[in-house]
Amino acid sequence: MANNDNGAGILVAFIAGAAVGAAVALLFAPATGEDAREYLSQRAREGRDRAADAARQGREVLNRQRESVTDAFDRARQQFQTPGEEQDA
User: Fold this and answer.
1) Residue 17 to residues 9, 27, 30: CA-CA distances in angstroms?
2) What is this structure's pTM?
3) Is the per-residue pLDDT at 47 higher than 50?
4) What pLDDT was estimated at residue 66?
5) Is 70 helix (H, G, I), strand (E, B) or coil?
6) Cβ neighbours of residue 30 closer than 8 Å, sequence gap 6 or more
7) 64-72 contacts, C-beta under 8 A, 24 or more apart
8) Residue 8 pLDDT exceeds 80
9) What pLDDT shows up at residue 70?
């Protein structure tokens, strides 16, 4: 009879362990395919938006720098041409 009681205890422990294992598996299981696709598409949209913002900011900086260089060349041209025009006159 002692063997039956010990076997029953082992069986109960096995069933309890299986139940706990199943609960842990449900808690830590990866997301469903639909959830994973939604997550990935959301992250892709965020990445695309960030890239577009970075490109826009880059264009703005480039335009400002181009205007600054153009203004500097115009000022230098005016300073160079002004003394030459006075000497010809």
Assistant:
1) 12, 15, 21
2) 0.48
3) yes
4) 92
5) helix
6) 36
7) none
8) no
9) 93
User: Residue 36 in contact with residue 30, Cβ under 8 Å?
Assistant: yes
Rounded to an integer, what distance in angstroms lies between the CA atom of residue 25 and that of residue 19?
10
Complete DSSP assignment for 17-56: HHHHHHHHHHHHPPPPHHHHHHHHHHHHHHHHHHHHHHHH
pLDDT of residue 67: 92
The whole-angstrom separation of Cα 79 and Cα 36 is: 64
> In whole angstroms, what is the distance from residue 7 CA to residue 2 CA?
9
Q: 72-86: per-residue pLDDT in tens? A: 999 998 888 865 555
Distance CA 6, CA 3 (A): 5
